[in-house]
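User: Structure tokens for this complex, please. No commentary.
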Amino acid sequence: MLTDLFLTLCISTALTAVQAENRCSVDAKNGYKVRLSIKTALGNKAYPWDDSEMFLFRATLAFAMRVYTKSDQYNVSSVHVCDETPRVSFWFVVSNDTELVSAEDVEKAVRISRNRINSAFMLTDQTLEFVNIPPTLVAPVQPGTPPWLIVFGVVISAVCAGVVMLLLSSFVQKRRKKGILEDENEEERCEKQNGATHEVQEGSDDFNQIFVEASSSTKL
Amino acid sequence: MEKGNTRPSWDNPMQFVLACVSYAVGLGNVWRFPYLCQMHGGGGFLIPYLIMLVLEGLPLFCMELAIGQRMRLGSIGAWSAISPYLGGVGIASVVTSIYLCLYYNVINAWSFWYLFHSFQAVLPWAHCPANTNLTGHLEECEAATPTQYFFYRETLNISPTINDGGGMHMGQALCLLLAWMLVYICIVRGVASTGKVVYFTASFPYLVLFIYLIRGVTLHGAVNGLKYMFTPKLEQLANPTTWINAATQIFFSLGLGFGSLIAFASYNNHNNNFERQAIAVSLINSGTSIFASVVTFSIYGFKATFNYEACLGRLRLLLLNTFDLGEDAISVDNVTFWVTELNQTYPDRFATLSNKLEICSLETELDTAVEGTGLAFIVYSEAIKNMPVPQLWSVLYFSMLLMLGLGSMLGNVTAITTPLCDIRFLSRHLSNETLNGLVCLFCLLLGLGFTTRSGNYWLTMFNDYGATLSLLFICYTLHFVGLIHLDRFENDIEDMIGHRPNWYWKIVWAGVGPILIIGLFIFYIIIYIMGGTPTYQAWDKDLVTVDSAPQLSFSSHLLMHQQKAVIYNLYLLSATFSIPKVFIRIYSLEGGWVYQC
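Assistant:
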């Protein structure tokens, strides 16, 4: 009986060990590969990748599963990691008690909480890569009025105002010129009439001033 | 008739010089000359360029100024005064200027569009927009670059072919309206307003170019571009295309034959020393071209280095990901070493990479020569988005483009309005302001056609095929006239500036110049005859490349259009030969030329 018990114990541990191995492997059906590029993202401020960071990753992923399923059945132990490389890349699977969570669910969970996962590691969608999970882009901000239209409005109002001012001022100038010309014409007519009785000016040569005056006022 | 007293004039000769500089220094100096430098052997291109300037550009420039200043009339009147049979040449000038005005202001509209879009926290051409599911970027943008996408899709909303008309782009139409209003405000009172505006339009681009020079040469990788430019490849001088391109560039850069210079000079004082001014303006124009190409090449170098290093970065990442090496293992500097190393150590694994492996080469990046709107709006904005504080550089750059374009537009529009204002009938019934306004309105309405989805293709057609032949013919006539009436010409010049032109002018006006122009003219006629269908590059949304699309189905229509333009000009010229004495005039053979209508 003891041997039977021992045998069953051995077989069950072997089975669980095999199961645990089958859970996380390279190219696992329900697993995803993760790649981190810490030094590219942070440069001098890069932190070394160690077990604590891995623990944080597993915890964040468990958080993401909790948010997605709205239940608290996921823990750090639910996330299994394997095939760690110096690149800092590894595969992970998520298990729900005994069975593995499907790839689609994991993907959806990751996409919803992507921002939180990224910020836990101070990385971005490009530097914390989930291979085959498309990134979630920030929804484009649609402002009420496109900003270019505002600048355009300002500039075109200024130009309009300039045009109107210039046209008005030239219109006013023309009016004024017309007024002055009319006065000048009147003066000329008066001068012509008086030219014949104009006296000879002093300090001039024996020159017929009348002739000079008359010729200067007849413009062609 | 003492029209000389009533004709408006520049406040001082400086305004005239600045107007000519503003007109001559235009977009071509920034986007055509650096391209030619690159295509024809870098620094070596300066040799044919300067030779052509001395033999062809300077004499024609001086002659146009002389004619304008002597006749004190726009191009139609001036040519009619030289000989009543040549009135058609003046009309051809005006028609060519109208064609140019129609499409040139659309480029200013684009500058406005980019300028207004620079006032944003993130420049819109810096990143691709997200697609509808927010899983990635738009396909069209991913396949091309964000700057190309912004230009072809968001700015132009371009259609696949010239046949697909599509509606007007409202944003473009608004910007075109603004551009024409700005032009109107600058020419509304003729030289009185133009004279004041040119102080700004002539000097501002130099300020920006200087700032960009400092910024450009301090950019990382600028030295690569400058080295590339200044290493002359003198074997290019043996290529006849180099010389022809140099001649054509001088020709278009100085804006000869459009009638703008005649118009500007017609407002001059009779004794203005145009000879010195012509030399000054031509030298300033060429100097600006060289200055702008130094700036452009430092920007090229920066962009090429940036792209080259990005390529190396991608390669590094690819190697790291495939071989799962730590990030410290490969740096951007030793990527090429590691490529060979890994190929030797893990050949089979390396073979899986073969289709993803890019070849990064700085030379190929530098060799991508771009000209025209591609350079100004795509390459430069790509470089700007990678600079620190890109909004500032963007605003500076597009304001500069705007001022360059505006300065040239002032000349183009003046070339149209001056002959119109000279026509007694029009100037009696309409005031200057109204006439100028009508010209601007007319050009605006027709120009709206270039803001449609296929507008850019039409613009390329007009730009590439519209003007060359007629301009060459006009300038040939100019030389011909100079040749025949050389004595009378010399007398008039002596009358104006006090001394006769020296031997250099006589040789180029009467000897070398006409030969060069005839040569160019024959060359372009041959090209026209042999060239076949005009082609343009089309933006293929699905392939997302810019390929050469000879439009076979539309070719006959296009050719007809082009032929129409040339034939129209030639018709006008020939028409005046066959219709003598259309204008009522008093023509004096001995005492000079007097024109009266």
